[in-house]
Amino acid sequence: MALHTHPEFVAAFGEALSGGPVPAGLTARDPAEIGRRFSVYRNNVAVGLTGALATRFPVIRRVVGEAFFAPLALLYAKMERPCSPVLAEWGEGFAAFVEGFAPLAAYPYLGDVARIEFARGRAFHAADARAVDPARLAGADPERVRLRLHPSVTLLWLAHPAVSIWARNQPGGEDVPLAHGPEIALILRDAAFGVPVWRVGRGDGVMVRSVLAGDPLAVAAGKARKVDAGHEPQALLVSLMRAGAIVDAGA
């Protein structure tokens, strides 16, 4: 029997983990045990992957219930395997998967909630960066200065009130008012290694998007005022400074 090449074996092994036949080339002292032993391994992988998703998406698990989440996660794991041994990097496609899963059609907001949860995990594991000295901002010319934000900063323009829903599913969040319509989420890792989710208005959202694109501060503030005539950037900038989310300010 011809030996498989390494890519062929990896592909066959992956198919076997998803329920396909045991790949050729596996051995055991008793050949009759190969299938049973591989089933144990397959089950361990499935448990590990579904557990990783449960840890990454706790609000989704809470909303749909443990009995529903377990097979949901298993189905996703069969469709989209990790591409890296670092499981914290896996699961970006879970939001789109949830949105397209017919039995969850009555919960259209779950995809956006999953985006928040994945972004929080990514923010927590983002690279370190030292916060800028506030003195550098005090005399900066807003027409020229460009702010650089912490690598953890993520801005999500959501189609549903997912920030409110996420907040209501946090400990003590039962009384958080449920908003109506789309929301904008600003996610970052703060100086205390917390990962807050801020609900921001359109003006703040446009300003952060502009800053992330590299626009000078004055340009970013001007874009914010175009969508919110009364927008003032000071409160947002102070919040970002206190969180340690502004890491550079250069021309």
TrEMBL record:
Which InterPro entries does the entry mention? DUF2063 (IPR018640), DUF2063_N_sf (IPR044922)
GO MF terms here are: DNA binding
Is this entry keyworded DNA-binding?
Answer: yes
Transmembrane regions: none
Query: Which key words are in the record?
Result: DNA-binding
**Residue ranges the record marks as coiled coil:** none
Looking at the keywords, is Plastid present? no
Where does the record place the Putative DNA-binding domain?
11-98
| Protein name as it appears in the record | DNA-binding domain-containing protein
Q: Which organism is it from?
A: Paragemmobacter amnigenus
Q: From which lineage does this chain's organism come?
A: Bacteria, Pseudomonadati, Pseudomonadota, Alphaproteobacteria, Rhodobacterales
